[in-house]
Write a structure and sequence with these properties.
Blueprint: E1 2-7, H1 12-26, E2 30-37, H2 48-66, E3 70-76, H3 86-99, E4 103-106, H4 114-129, E5 146-149, E6 161-164, H5 169-177, H6 180-190, H7 194-209, E7 214-219
Parallel strand pairs: 1-2, 1-4, 2-3, 4-5
Antiparallel strand pairs: 5-7, 6-7
Length: 233
């Protein structure tokens, strides 16, 4: 299968669906990761231009650790994500048409900040627009099913689907550790051991479905967005 995971910031994939993508890679899927924002505002001390370079490099390292075939970015500045921005829509449509994914993973529409919510809307709109032949140049793609990944710390999110990520939990955390600038900043600024938090959340989802570690998802219920067969690993 061809899997497209679209997140807002460079570490969001590892947090929300890194284990699932690693399991997808293990079953032979072609995994593409796309970050909409470049993470340039995610630090108190490091300035935006320097942080952008650091975080894009961390994103490539994290994607490689998960076994992704490709890591792309729309390179939008933090707090500037706008689902109505035609340039961003066209860029994502181009990527979706190139990949023609069997399914897409992205943020919940109700996640904790506007940039995440805008990415969710952007993915929904672009994935439909990509199926309209005359919207842009190139062959149209299919309307792909969408799975919304867990919110940060699982707040307000009740999964409908679970993926047992127990065989790859260390891969997930290892990929997250590639985002050194964020883990160090979270520990120093917010006094949060972010890797421990992510592992704990995966353990909690595992309790819900009878696995040592799991990730949870909700499927998009819109017309043509669901399939009879199991798509998640």
């Amino acid at each position: 299968m061809k899997v497209l995971a679209v997140s807002c910031h460079p570490d969001d994939i590892e947090v929300g669906c890194g284990g699932t993508l690693a399991m997808c890679e293990r079953r032979g899927d072609q995994v593409t990761i796309c970050h909409v924002a470049n993470g340039n505002m995610g630090h108190v001390i490091i300035k935006p231009d320097e942080l952008r370079r650091i975080r894009l490099a961390e994103a490539r390292a994290g994607g490689a650790a998960l076994g992704a075939a490709r890591v792309a970015t729309l390179d939008v500045g933090d707090l500037l994500v706008d689902s109505a921005n035609r340039q961003a829509v066209l860029a994502l449509v181009e990527l979706m048409r190139e990949i023609d994914p069997d399914f897409i993973i992205t943020h919940s529409p109700d996640d904790y900040m506007k940039d995440h919510q805008e990415v969710s809307r952007l993915v929904f709109d672009a994935s439909f627009s990509a199926s309209v032949p005359h919207f842009a140049e190139g062959p149209a793609s299919r309307i792909a099913p969408i799975f919304y990944m867990d919110t940060l710390a699982g707040i307000g999110f009740q999964p409908e689907h679970y993926v047992d990520i127990s065989p790859v939990i260390d891969v997930k955390i290892g990929a997250l550790n590639c985002h050194e600038s964020q883990l160090k900043w979270m520990l120093e600024h917010d006094h949060i051991d972010f890797a421990d938090m992510v592992r704990t959340c995966a353990r909690y989802r595992g309790y819900q479905c009878g696995a040592p570690y799991a990730e949870g998802f909700i499927s998009c219920k819109a017309y043509l967005r669901q399939r009879a067969e199991r798509l998640l690993p």
